[in-house]
Write a structure and sequence with these properties.
alpha+beta; Aminopeptidase; 6-stranded mixed β-sheet; 4-stranded antiparallel β-sheet; globular
Length: 421
């Protein structure tokens, strides 16, 4: 058996194989869908992004991959040729065409899908690891990622996967759903500065015993893996979906920067809610975000105003810590949200503010952005710590720009207006 690039002359036997296994692939159930797939295969053949394995002239397996998207798009093996190395030949050839210095993606069946064991085992053999749960053609799937050598995100995702397994095991009878949001999903996670933000929502109330296990879970995992830098970075809340939607008192497990506790309330501001709905990653359970309400512009405006009040109250005296640079990033993000009605990463907002020359203390914002991009490098840098201690004046002058934006936006906006409508 050999792997070779597909040729348009192979299209009929290629599609015979696809038709034979189409019931394993959501989205290929109808003749119309098969016709569309045939056209897709021909396009991939034209780009040398279609490979097949032949045995005595018969197609035993096929794979489609995209160099542009750096992903495996489709893989199928004829039932009569399974467990004979066909999938390995296909994967070897596809991966040799993709960029191993970047993330390579593939979507496959979930862990609890009866069709999942074989493909998941194959991808794990090549080093792919589980990522977020997704939906394709109205069917639940899971994204798998092959990370570059030495990837920080790979190590972070392994810690996330361990945390999800532990939480879902403790809450197995509560039907939990687990989300990742914040800097990790906005591609703005910075080791040494950022948090790993998670939200756990359950159908049944968390029991006292479960809460006791959960509240110290970060420390438990850190004790088990003391060299892992991520477990202490997890922050978020765990509570029932009903309490999250209504604000009713509930048994809540809270993890924060200052510690952890069992409490009775937990709520999102409009920034977090927007991130969750528009960019959040589903890690476990059935997606319930259709039950959530996307914040309107008035909600975002109100929270920006609260941020402004916090900045003017506490930023007049900055400490000798690189976290002091965060005020400059927060202001940039608030201005971006006022102008666009959207929420982006802090790094992205600071870059946008510099491009639009919005900050009267440009050098201070540039320094803040430099530290944000490499916090571990500057954590103990004496010069940068000196700059952090003296940055309060620049923060307050930049806050005046935010104040002007609030006043201008307030004067021109209409109550109830939403930029999402």
């Amino acid at each position: 058996m050999i792997a070779e690039y597909g040729d348009p002359r192979d299209i009929d036997p290629w599609m015979e194989l696809v038709t034979q296994v189409r019931w394993n692939f959501p989205g290929l159930e109808t003749q119309e869908a098969l016709d569309e797939h045939r056209a897709t295969v021909l396009r991939f053949m034209g780009k040398k992004q279609a490979v097949c394995v032949k045995n005595e002239g018969k197609i035993a397996g096929v794979i489609l991959f995209s160099r542009g998207h750096n992903m495996i798009c489709f893989l199928a093996v004829s039932p009569g040729f399974r467990r004979r190395g066909v999938a390995t030949l296909l994967m070897d050839e596809a991966l040799s065409n993709l960029d191993r210095t970047r993330e390579i993606a593939v979507s496959t069946f979930t862990a609890d899908d009866e069709k999942g064991p074989a493909p998941r085992t194959l991808y794990k053999k090549y080093g792919f690891i589980e990522d977020e749960l997704i939906e394709e053609f109205n069917y639940p799937n899971q994204l798998f990622i092959l990370h570059p050598e030495g990837s920080e995100r790979k190590n972070r995702q392994l810690a996330i996967n361990r945390m999800v397994r532990e939480i879902s095991s403790i809450l197995a009878d509560n039907r939990p759903v687990i989300y990742l949001y914040g800097s990790s999903v906005l591609n703005d996670f910075r080791p040494g500065w950022s948090d790993i933000d998670i939200l756990v929502l359950t159908q049944e109330q968390i029991t006292k015993q479960q809460a006791v296990h959960l509240v110290t879970l970060r420390q438990t995992l850190l004790k088990d893996e003391p060299d892992d830098p991520y477990y202490r970075s997890f922050e978020g809340g765990m509570l029932t979906l009903d309490a999250f939607l209504t604000g009713k008192p509930d048994r809540v497990v809270y993890w924060g920067t200052s510690g952890e506790r069992i409490t009775d309330t937990y709520a999102f501001d409009s920034f977090c809610m927007t991130e969750l709905i528009t960019d959040g990653a589903l890690l476990y359970g059935k997606d319930i975000r259709k039950q959530l309400k996307l914040p309107c512009y008035v909600d975002l405006y109100s929270d920006v105003n609260k941020h402004y009040e916090t900045i003017t109250r506490y930023a007049s005296c900055t400490g000798r810590s690189f976290y002091s640079f965060g005020w400059m990033l927060d202001i940039s993000r608030c201005i971006y949200t006022l102008r666009t009605g959207k929420v982006i990463s802090k790094t992205g907002a600071a870059e946008w503010a510099l491009e639009n020359d919005l900050c009267p203390e440009r050098a201070a914002l540039e320094t803040a952005l430099t530290v944000r991009k490499a916090p571990l490098k500057y954590k103990h840098d004496e010069y940068m710590l000196d700059q952090a201690e003296k940055i309060s004046g620049a923060v307050l002058r930049y806050a005046e720009v935010l104040k002007h934006e609030l006043e201008t936006t307030n004067a021109s906006s209409q109550p109830g207006h939403s930029p999402y409508s």
